[in-house]
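TEACHING EXERCISE
Course module: macromolecular assemblies
Task: Read the component lines below, then compare them to the predicted structure of the full complex.
Student: A.B.
Group: 4
Components provided:
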Amino acid sequence: AQRVTQPEKLLSVFKGAPVELKCNYSYSGSPELFWYVQYSRQRLQLLLRHISRESIKGFTADLNKGETSFHLKKPFAQEEDSAMYYCALKNAGGTSYGKLTFGQGTILTVHP
Amino acid sequence: EAGVAQSPRYKIIEKRQSVAFWCNPISGHATLYWYQQILGQGPKLLIQFQNNGVVDDSQLPKDRFSAERLKGVDSTLKIQPAKLEDSAVYLCASSPRRSQETQYFGPGTRLLVL
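Instructor-supplied answer key:
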Protein backbone atom coordinates (compact mmCIF):
# COMPACT_ATOMS: atom_id res chain seq x y z
CA ALA A 1 0.00 0.00 0.00
CA GLN A 2 1.19 3.50 -0.70
CA ARG A 3 2.10 5.73 2.18
CA VAL A 4 3.34 9.29 2.65
CA THR A 5 5.13 10.35 5.82
CA GLN A 6 5.82 13.88 6.96
CA PRO A 7 7.81 13.48 10.17
CA GLU A 8 7.43 17.05 11.41
CA LYS A 9 4.03 18.32 12.50
CA LEU A 10 5.42 21.76 13.30
CA LEU A 11 8.35 23.67 11.88
CA SER A 12 9.38 27.16 12.96
CA VAL A 13 12.02 29.32 11.32
CA PHE A 14 12.92 32.98 11.21
CA LYS A 15 12.45 35.14 8.15
CA GLY A 16 15.38 34.79 5.79
CA ALA A 17 16.41 31.39 7.10
CA PRO A 18 16.44 28.29 4.91
CA VAL A 19 13.57 25.89 5.32
CA GLU A 20 13.17 22.22 4.48
CA LEU A 21 9.94 20.28 4.90
CA LYS A 22 10.53 16.57 4.84
CA CYS A 23 8.47 14.00 2.96
CA ASN A 24 9.11 10.29 2.56
CA TYR A 25 6.98 7.90 0.59
CA SER A 26 6.35 4.23 0.04
CA TYR A 27 5.07 3.13 -3.36
CA SER A 28 5.68 0.07 -5.50
CA GLY A 29 5.45 1.79 -8.87
CA SER A 30 6.90 4.93 -10.39
CA PRO A 31 5.82 7.74 -8.06
CA GLU A 32 4.18 11.01 -8.96
CA LEU A 33 4.58 13.43 -6.09
CA PHE A 34 3.14 16.80 -5.23
CA TRP A 35 3.21 19.46 -2.58
CA TYR A 36 -0.09 21.08 -1.67
CA VAL A 37 -0.38 24.15 0.56
CA GLN A 38 -3.18 25.61 2.63
CA TYR A 39 -2.82 29.21 3.76
CA SER A 40 -4.91 30.52 6.64
CA ARG A 41 -8.61 30.66 5.71
CA GLN A 42 -7.91 29.51 2.15
CA ARG A 43 -8.57 26.27 0.38
CA LEU A 44 -6.03 23.57 -0.31
CA GLN A 45 -4.09 24.29 -3.50
CA LEU A 46 -1.30 22.77 -5.52
CA LEU A 47 2.13 24.27 -4.86
CA LEU A 48 4.32 22.19 -7.13
CA ARG A 49 4.74 18.77 -8.73
CA HIS A 50 7.90 16.80 -9.26
CA ILE A 51 7.26 16.15 -12.95
CA SER A 52 7.45 19.85 -13.75
CA ARG A 53 10.75 20.36 -11.90
CA GLU A 54 9.64 23.93 -11.36
CA SER A 55 10.23 26.52 -8.68
CA ILE A 56 7.09 28.11 -7.27
CA LYS A 57 7.31 31.03 -4.84
CA GLY A 58 10.98 30.15 -4.37
CA PHE A 59 10.20 26.56 -3.35
CA THR A 60 11.76 23.55 -5.02
CA ALA A 61 11.45 19.83 -4.40
CA ASP A 62 13.60 17.06 -5.80
CA LEU A 63 12.48 13.47 -6.04
CA ASN A 64 15.10 11.12 -4.61
CA LYS A 65 14.07 7.59 -5.52
CA GLY A 66 16.97 6.04 -3.67
CA GLU A 67 15.91 7.62 -0.39
CA THR A 68 12.21 7.62 -1.36
CA SER A 69 12.01 11.28 -0.43
CA PHE A 70 10.52 14.45 -1.86
CA HIS A 71 11.61 17.21 0.49
CA LEU A 72 10.42 20.78 -0.05
CA LYS A 73 13.07 23.49 0.22
CA LYS A 74 13.36 27.23 0.15
CA PRO A 75 16.62 29.08 0.72
CA PHE A 76 15.12 32.20 2.31
CA ALA A 77 11.78 31.85 4.09
CA GLN A 78 9.27 34.70 4.08
CA GLU A 79 6.50 35.41 6.58
CA GLU A 80 3.89 34.79 3.87
CA ASP A 81 5.15 31.21 3.58
CA SER A 82 3.49 30.42 6.91
CA ALA A 83 0.92 27.74 6.11
CA MET A 84 0.09 24.04 6.29
CA TYR A 85 2.02 21.98 3.75
CA TYR A 86 0.98 18.54 2.55
CA CYS A 87 3.03 16.10 0.56
CA ALA A 88 0.91 13.88 -1.68
CA LEU A 89 1.47 10.84 -3.88
CA LYS A 90 -0.69 10.08 -6.88
CA ASN A 91 -1.76 6.54 -7.70
CA ALA A 92 -0.59 6.00 -11.27
CA GLY A 93 -2.72 3.03 -12.26
CA GLY A 94 -5.52 0.59 -11.58
CA THR A 95 -8.96 1.42 -10.25
CA SER A 96 -7.45 3.98 -7.88
CA TYR A 97 -5.79 5.86 -10.73
CA GLY A 98 -5.73 9.55 -9.88
CA LYS A 99 -6.17 9.03 -6.15
CA LEU A 100 -3.98 11.22 -3.97
CA THR A 101 -2.53 9.87 -0.74
CA PHE A 102 -1.62 12.72 1.59
CA GLY A 103 0.84 12.95 4.42
CA GLN A 104 -0.26 14.29 7.78
CA GLY A 105 0.96 17.78 6.98
CA THR A 106 3.54 20.17 8.42
CA ILE A 107 2.61 23.55 9.85
CA LEU A 108 5.31 26.01 8.87
CA THR A 109 5.58 29.21 10.87
CA VAL A 110 7.97 31.91 9.73
CA HIS A 111 8.74 34.45 12.44
CA PRO A 112 9.69 38.04 11.63
CA GLU B 1 -13.08 30.47 -13.60
CA ALA B 2 -15.33 29.78 -10.63
CA GLY B 3 -13.87 27.34 -8.14
CA VAL B 4 -15.31 24.23 -6.56
CA ALA B 5 -18.32 25.11 -4.43
CA GLN B 6 -19.45 23.23 -1.35
CA SER B 7 -22.34 23.62 1.06
CA PRO B 8 -23.01 23.86 3.87
CA ARG B 9 -19.76 25.21 5.25
CA TYR B 10 -20.51 24.02 8.77
CA LYS B 11 -22.85 21.44 10.22
CA ILE B 12 -23.49 20.28 13.76
CA ILE B 13 -25.60 17.17 14.34
CA GLU B 14 -26.15 14.59 17.02
CA LYS B 15 -24.97 11.02 16.62
CA ARG B 16 -27.34 8.73 14.76
CA GLN B 17 -28.73 11.65 12.74
CA SER B 18 -28.22 11.90 9.00
CA VAL B 19 -26.45 14.63 7.07
CA ALA B 20 -25.79 15.48 3.44
CA PHE B 21 -23.11 17.57 1.77
CA TRP B 22 -23.24 19.09 -1.68
CA CYS B 23 -20.47 19.81 -4.16
CA ASN B 24 -20.48 21.68 -7.44
CA PRO B 25 -17.22 21.08 -9.34
CA ILE B 26 -15.53 23.37 -11.81
CA SER B 27 -17.47 23.44 -15.06
CA GLY B 28 -16.29 20.77 -17.48
CA HIS B 29 -14.34 18.76 -14.93
CA ALA B 30 -15.06 15.09 -15.46
CA THR B 31 -13.44 13.77 -12.29
CA LEU B 32 -14.78 14.49 -8.83
CA TYR B 33 -13.33 13.42 -5.49
CA TRP B 34 -14.60 13.40 -1.92
CA TYR B 35 -12.01 13.44 0.86
CA GLN B 36 -12.38 13.17 4.62
CA GLN B 37 -9.93 15.14 6.73
CA ILE B 38 -9.91 14.32 10.42
CA LEU B 39 -8.28 16.89 12.69
CA GLY B 40 -4.51 16.52 12.66
CA GLN B 41 -4.45 14.27 9.61
CA GLY B 42 -4.12 14.72 5.90
CA PRO B 43 -7.13 14.32 3.59
CA LYS B 44 -8.16 10.73 2.88
CA LEU B 45 -9.98 9.81 -0.32
CA LEU B 46 -13.48 8.44 0.21
CA ILE B 47 -14.76 8.15 -3.34
CA GLN B 48 -13.83 9.12 -6.87
CA PHE B 49 -16.24 9.70 -9.77
CA GLN B 50 -15.49 9.82 -13.45
CA ASN B 51 -18.46 11.65 -14.96
CA ASN B 52 -21.42 10.02 -13.22
CA GLY B 53 -19.76 6.67 -12.57
CA VAL B 54 -17.90 5.54 -9.45
CA VAL B 55 -14.32 4.50 -10.23
CA ASP B 56 -12.99 4.06 -6.69
CA ASP B 57 -14.99 3.75 -3.47
CA SER B 58 -12.68 1.32 -1.70
CA GLN B 59 -12.24 3.66 1.28
CA LEU B 60 -15.92 4.58 1.67
CA PRO B 61 -17.64 3.08 4.76
CA LYS B 62 -20.57 1.84 2.76
CA ASP B 63 -22.65 0.82 5.74
CA ARG B 64 -23.23 4.49 6.55
CA PHE B 65 -21.79 6.62 3.75
CA SER B 66 -23.22 7.01 0.28
CA ALA B 67 -22.49 9.34 -2.60
CA GLU B 68 -23.90 10.06 -5.99
CA ARG B 69 -23.15 12.25 -8.95
CA LEU B 70 -26.25 12.43 -11.06
CA LYS B 71 -25.81 13.80 -14.58
CA GLY B 72 -22.06 13.90 -14.04
CA VAL B 73 -22.01 17.37 -12.52
CA ASP B 74 -23.02 18.04 -8.90
CA SER B 75 -22.43 15.47 -6.23
CA THR B 76 -23.85 14.73 -2.80
CA LEU B 77 -22.26 12.80 0.02
CA LYS B 78 -24.54 11.42 2.73
CA ILE B 79 -23.89 9.95 6.14
CA GLN B 80 -26.65 7.93 7.79
CA PRO B 81 -26.46 7.38 10.72
CA ALA B 82 -23.58 9.59 11.84
CA LYS B 83 -21.08 8.53 14.47
CA LEU B 84 -18.86 10.66 16.69
CA GLU B 85 -15.80 9.61 14.69
CA ASP B 86 -17.31 11.13 11.53
CA SER B 87 -16.46 14.59 12.86
CA ALA B 88 -14.14 15.95 10.20
CA VAL B 89 -13.81 18.32 7.28
CA TYR B 90 -15.24 16.88 4.07
CA LEU B 91 -13.43 18.17 1.02
CA CYS B 92 -14.62 17.99 -2.54
CA ALA B 93 -12.12 18.29 -5.39
CA SER B 94 -12.35 18.12 -9.16
CA SER B 95 -10.04 17.78 -12.12
CA PRO B 96 -10.56 17.82 -15.87
CA ARG B 97 -9.63 14.12 -16.08
CA ARG B 98 -8.03 11.40 -13.93
CA SER B 99 -4.68 11.87 -15.63
CA GLN B 100 -4.71 15.56 -14.78
CA GLU B 101 -2.12 16.28 -12.15
CA THR B 102 -3.88 19.15 -10.46
CA GLN B 103 -6.92 18.62 -8.28
CA TYR B 104 -8.86 21.75 -7.41
CA PHE B 105 -10.31 21.77 -3.92
CA GLY B 106 -13.41 23.33 -2.49
CA PRO B 107 -13.51 25.12 0.89
CA GLY B 108 -14.78 22.05 2.68
CA THR B 109 -17.67 21.30 5.01
CA ARG B 110 -16.80 21.09 8.68
CA LEU B 111 -18.95 18.46 10.42
CA LEU B 112 -19.23 18.11 14.16
CA VAL B 113 -21.10 15.10 15.53
CA LEU B 114 -22.15 15.42 19.18
